[in-house]
Amino acid sequence: MIFDPQHRKDNRSARIGMALFRMSQAIKKVTQAESDTLGLSSVQIQALLFAAYTRSDVATVGNFANTIGTTHVTAVKILNGLVRRELINKSQKAEDRRVTLLSLTSKGREIVNKLDNWGHLLDDALQPIPEELLAHFEIGLGSIISTLQKEGHLIVSEPCLGCIHFLPNTGDIAAPHYCKMIQKYLTHEASLQECPEHTSSFKV
Ligand code: SF4
């Protein structure tokens, strides 16, 4: 049990587990304080970032709910608050009208453009660490994230590069890349957007 200091004393994974837990607490506190300055909650900011960086055809209410680990109903409440403030647009997907797509309004885009420093705490804390140590750290964290992802505890949205379904430069100029999962050609711009179905080819 990572919360027991005696257990941590002789157990490296428990010490690291506790360190990650403490980091998550600090991140929560700092991101909340940063969000307050914009008059939004941190989860509302996450919604704006989701709409900004997720590929438009998968920027759905359901995927947003999964990304932040909440229920569909709670996600809808969060998003409705942003729709009322004219920061997010909701529209029905043409192929399936039961699916609601999210996009930023121009006002929402303005807020996202102001978010350059949001969540900078971690970046700042990692800067002084030497590159070699960071490389090991990245592999270790990748392994933890991959395990949590496989167990269904989190969704990792990433652009197409590095995804097992990605076949780059197999199409024409307009839509040069192919996704084996959705069986569609993608524009280069779409392949640079985050996708909740990204399945890393990185083996840990
Ligand atoms: S599943 Fe992979 S290749 Fe397909 S769109 Fe998503 S990230 Fe790109």
From TrEMBL:
Gene3D superfamilies: Winged helix-like DNA-binding domain superfamily/Winged helix DNA-binding domain. Keywords: DNA-binding, Transcription, Transcription regulation. Residues 13-146 form the HTH marR-type domain. GO terms for biological process: response to stress. The keyword Transcription regulation applies. One of its GO terms (molecular function) is DNA-binding transcription factor activity. SMART domains: HTH_MARR. PANTHER family: HTH-TYPE TRANSCRIPTIONAL REPRESSOR YETL, TRANSCRIPTIONAL REGULATOR, MARR FAMILY. This is MarR family transcriptional regulator. It comes from Paenibacillus lutimineralis.
